Q: What sequence folds into this?
C-alpha cells in the first residue's frame, strides 16, 4: 500500500539502539571539538585591513607563510623541539616507570618526587629555569662555564637557549609520561615475568619481549599527548626567551602567539594554527602506525 513501511524487526532495533543512545554525545563532542578547527580554517582564508574590512583571499595566507624563510625556520624549530623533548623524556620515563612499579618501599617516595614538575604552573617553571641559567648566580651557567672554560650568557646564545628550552620541556613532560607508562607496566601479569625468568630471560630480554610490546598502546597515546603539548607550547618558550635571540627559538606556536596577540593579525595566526593541527595529525598517524596502536585499539 502507498505510504506503508514495514516494521523494523526487533533484532534490528536492538542493533540500532546503542547508536541511537550514543548519537547525542557524539554530536556534542563533534561540535565542541571540530567547530573551533573549522572556525580557524575559515578565518585563515580571509585578510583583514586596518579599517576592519575583511576580504576573502583563499589560500593566499598559506602560500605567503610557506614561502617565508622565517616561517619555515619556525616549523623546523618546532619539529626539533618535539624530537628533542621526546628523545630525552622517553628513555627516562620508561626507566622511572619500571622503578616505581617495583614492590619496594622507596617507590612511594619516588612517585611523589617525580610528579613534582607536573604540578608546577608552566610559566612558573619557566621562570625557575630562567633563574637556573642566570649569568651571575645560575648553577647551570656555572656548570657550563666550568665545562667550556669560559663564561656564557645562556639565553643569548641560540644553541644553548634552544637546549635550555628542550631541557625545561623534558622536565615537565617526564612525570606524565612516566605515570602513563607505569600504569601500562602495572597491568602486565607478573606470571609472564616469572615465566621469562624460568626461561633464563634477563632484565633487557624481559623489557624487549614483554614490557615494550605490552605497553605499545600506552606508548602510542603518551607520544601523541606529549607531541601535541610540545607543538602547541607557546607560553613557556615565550616566558623564557620570547623566541630570541633573533628568531633562533621562535617555534611555530610562539609565532602564532605574536601574530595573534601582539600584532593582532588573527588571520595569519589562524593560518599557523591550522598548519599546527595538520602537523599534529601527521604525528598522530605516524605514532599509531609505528606502535600498532590503531590495530590494538580496534
A:
Amino acid at each position: 500500500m502507498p505510504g506503508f513501511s514495514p516494521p523494523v524487526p526487533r533484532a534490528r532495533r536492538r542493533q540500532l539502539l546503542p547508536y541511537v543512545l550514543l548519537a547525542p554525545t557524539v554530536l556534542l563532542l563533534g561540535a565542541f571539538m571540530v567547530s573551533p578547527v573549522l572556525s580557524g580554517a575559515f578565518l585563515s582564508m580571509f585578510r583583514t585591513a586596518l579599517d576592519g574590512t575583511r576580504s576573502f583571499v583563499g589560500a593566499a595566507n598559506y602560500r605567503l607563510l610557506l614561502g617565508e624563510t622565517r616561517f619555515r625556520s619556525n616549523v623546523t624549530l618546532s619539529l626539533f623541539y618535539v624530537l628533542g623533548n621526546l628523545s630525552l623524556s622517553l628513555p627516562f620515563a620508561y626507566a622511572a616507570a619500571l622503578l616505581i612499579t617495583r614492590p619496594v618501599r622507596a617507590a612511594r617516595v619516588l612517585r611523589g618526587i617525580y610528579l613534582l614538575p607536573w604540578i608546577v604552573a608552566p610559566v612558573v617553571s619557566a621562570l625557575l629555569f630562567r633563574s637556573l641559567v642566570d649569568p651571575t648566580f645560575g648553577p647551570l651557567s656555572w656548570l657550563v662555564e666550568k665545562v667550556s672554560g669560559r663564561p656564557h650568557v645562556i639565553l643569548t646564545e641560540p644553541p644553548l637557549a634552544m637546549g635550555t628550552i628542550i631541557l625545561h620541556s623534558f622536565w615537565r613532560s617526564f612525570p606524565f609520561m612516566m605515570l602513563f607508562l607505569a600504569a601500562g607496566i602495572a597491568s602486565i601479569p607478573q606470571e609472564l615475568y616469572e615465566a621469562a625468568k624460568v626461561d633464563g630471560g634477563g632484565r633487557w630480554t624481559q623489557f624487549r619481549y614483554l614490557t615494550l610490546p605490552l605497553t605499545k598502546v600506552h606508548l602510542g597515546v603518551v607520544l601523541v599527548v606529549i607531541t601535541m603539548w610540545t607543538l602547541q607550547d607557546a607560553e613557556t618558550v615565550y616566558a623564557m626567551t620570547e623566541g630570541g635571540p633573533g628568531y633562533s627559538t621562535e617555534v611555530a606556536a610562539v609565532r602564532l602567539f605574536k601574530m595573534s596577540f601582539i600584532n593582532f593579525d588573527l588571520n595569519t595566526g589562524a593560518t599557523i594554527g591550522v598548519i599546527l593541527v595538520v602537523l599534529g595529525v601527521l604525528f598522530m598517524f605516524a605514532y599509531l602506525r609505528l606502535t600498532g596502536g590503531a590495530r590494538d585499539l580496534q
Strands lie at 46-48, 54-56. The radius of gyration is 25 Å. The chain has 14 helices and two strands.
